[in-house]
Design brief:
two-stranded antiparallel sheet; about 5% strand
Length: about 230
C-alpha cells in the first residue's frame, strides 16, 4: 500500500508540474499578445507609427494559443457540449456512447496530425507521409520540393536563431524568420490533442470519467469549483 501511495503522489506531483508548464506557456502567450497589441495602439495613435511585425506576430501567437488551448481543454474537461441526449439514457448506454465519441475523437485527431505533419514538413525539409488516410511510409525527398527558404512576411530573423541557417537552409541567410518555426505548432498541437483524447478515452474505459465535455450550461462545473474553493478556504 505504501508503494502504491508513493506512486500516486509522484503521478500527482508530475501532473501538477505539467499543468503549471502548460498554464505558464498559455499565460506567456496571452501576455505577449496583450503587450504587442498595446504597444502598437500607443504607437499608432500617439506617434503615428507602429510595429510592422506586430500584427503577424499576434496572429501566430493566437494560433498557438488556440492549438494549445484545445488540448488543454480536453485534458481539463472544459469544452462545452450538448448533453441532452446522454443524460436521458441509461448508464451503460451512456458509457457506450462515450466510447464511440472517444473513438471518433481519436480518429479525428489522428487525421489532423497526419495532415498537419504533411503540411509542416514541406517547410522543414522533411518528408511527407504516404497514404491518403493513414501513413503508409515516408515520401522520397527531392531537392526541388524543399521549402525551407519560405519566410514569413514581416518578422525579422533574430541573431540568436542564425544557427539554424547552415542546418536547414544550406548556410544562406534569412531576412525574415522561416515559416517552419511558427508552423511547427500545427503538428505539436495535433499531437497534444491526440494524446489528450487518448488519455480521456482511457479514463472513460477505467470508469474515472463519463464524458468528454461539461454540461451545456456548465452549471455542474461552476458548482464544483465553488465547492472546491469553499473547502480550500475552510
Amino acid at each position: 500500500m505504501s508503494n502504491q501511495g508513493s506512486s500516486f503522489k509522484k503521478r500527482g506531483r508530475l501532473s501538477r508540474i505539467i499543468d503549471e508548464i502548460e498554464e505558464t506557456i498559455i499565460a506567456i502567450i496571452l501576455a505577449m499578445m496583450v503587450i504587442i497589441t498595446f504597444i502598437n495602439v500607443v504607437l499608432r495613435y500617439g506617434f503615428n507609427s507602429g510595429l510592422i511585425w506586430g500584427l503577424e506576430m499576434v496572429t501566430f501567437l493566437f494560433a498557438w494559443l488556440v492549438l494549445l488551448g484545445i488540448s488543454y481543454g480536453v485534458k481539463k474537461k472544459l469544452h462545452l457540449g450538448v448533453d441532452a441526449l446522454i443524460n436521458i439514457v441509461s448508464p451503460p448506454t451512456k458509457h457506450t456512447l462515450a466510447l464511440i465519441v472517444g473513438v471518433l475523437c481519436i480518429f479525428y485527431a489522428f487525421l489532423l496530425l497526419k495532415g498537419s505533419w504533411d503540411y509542416w514538413a514541406n517547410f522543414a525539409n522533411l518528408p511527407q507521409t504516404t497514404g491518403r488516410w493513414f501513413p503508409t511510409g515516408l515520401e522520397e525527398m527531392k531537392r526541388t520540393s524543399y521549402r525551407s527558404w519560405y519566410e514569413v512576411n514581416d518578422i525579422h530573423m533574430p541573431t540568436w536563431l542564425r544557427w539554424i541557417e547552415p542546418l536547414i537552409n544550406s548556410g544562406e541567410e534569412y531576412e525574415k524568420i522561416p515559416r517552419f518555426i511558427p508552423y511547427i505548432m500545427l503538428p505539436v498541437g495535433s499531437a497534444l490533442l491526440l494524446l489528450r483524447f487518448t488519455q480521456a478515452m482511457l479514463k472513460i474505459i477505467k470508469g474515472q470519467q463519463d464524458t468528454f465535455i461539461v454540461s451545456h450550461e456548465a452549471e455542474d462545473k461552476v458548482e464544483k469549483l465553488r465547492e472546491a474553493k469553499s473547502i480550500e478556504k475552510s
